[in-house]
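ok here's the first one, seq then struct tokens
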Amino acid sequence: MKIYITDRVNLTAKIVIVIAVAGISGLSDLNAGPRENDDPGKGFEPGSFIFDHIADSYEWHVFSFRGTHYSIPLPVILFCRESGLNIFMSNKFDHGYSSYNSFKIENEGPDKGSIVRVNSNGETCDESGKPLDFSITKNVLAMFFSVMVTLLIFLTIGKRYREEPSGVPKGIQSFFEPLIMFVIDDIAKPAIGEKKYKPFLPYILTLFFFIWINNMLGLIPIFPMGANVTGNISVTMGLALTSFIAINFSGNKKYWGHILNPPGIPAFLKFPLPLMQIIEIVGVFTKPFVLMIRLFANITAGHIITMGFFSLIFIFGERSPFFGYGITGVSVLFGIFITFLEFLVALIQAYVFTLLTSLFIGAAVSDEH
């Protein structure tokens, strides 16, 4: 059955409505007491405020009102040998203050923020180890949403290309076509080569738009946006791993020959002790590692700087209302400036990650000169 764009819009609207209704229905279950950093005696803690914003979590904090935090509970999916598969909503943990079904969210130590097993006294069972965690966390839900948005955009554009191959771009197609052509003409073709870029083009386009769209959605502080997806080391590691596979599984004889027997190098640097080979093999792994750290660090730094400016309002406000009101205007202006700068960084980081991946692929598949 042929599905038209109106059907896809209606389907997407229904999915969004279901998510919203499910989230709103869970708000009443999570109006627990104040968090640890809400203790009046402790004052405002900028570190907790900032890292609560950029960190992943098992619930989606929406807003706070008079010391009560309203959050959307998310599914917790755990597996361990003792109790098998466990599925429940994160509101059972009561913002991390309670344990449920022999599990709790660790609040301190190296496992802080992770789910661990506990005994009948609520103490962590070190001997049982952590369960396998397949939970739908904040970042996972945000990625589901970004994938849905991406599919809606590009299924719409693809349908119009099929219906009018030589027609004038219009609507959303006119916005994304220059970006698509930019990735093809200015990234894929020059980096990989005119003759060999086409097999890699689907991956290159997917990589660019996945990073860029998630970067952009992370700057909009409204549910289901605002999550720090590309500032999560696990996400950037996954992206780097896919690039690592694309680069090395596509490498030709020349590529591996240069790694295992680098040309133009004195023999004593290669045999009997393979110093150059070791360096080249280490380089195979450092390339995706640099991609991972670069994206993670730049996106996380932007969020930290923005939240740092807003933290100044509360820090100075605790000392004096006069300084609090005075710093508010400065913090808001700098926060807006950094946010606009982050919109530019969102595009630049998608470009840099895609360009470097394309260059590495191009070096792996290039022919002998």
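and now the second one, same deal
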Amino acid sequence: MIGLREIRKKKKFSQLKVAMDLSISREVLSYYENGKHSPDVAMLLRLSEYFDVSVDYLITGKDFVPRAERG
């Protein structure tokens, strides 16, 4: 999840802080960031709300652009 690590670092949050705020282990968060495990939909939504970014951003590092606007 490219965007997850980017947004966490951009906000200057440690893995431990985010993990504690979301009631998950730091290891699980690290696995998400490194692509070793994928969060379920409920966790994706929690991460999206926590960081105030789209799910698309968390996964790809880019915001969603509708097909009609891609050119």
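notes on #2: DSSP finds six helices and no strands in the chain. The radius of gyration is 12 Å.
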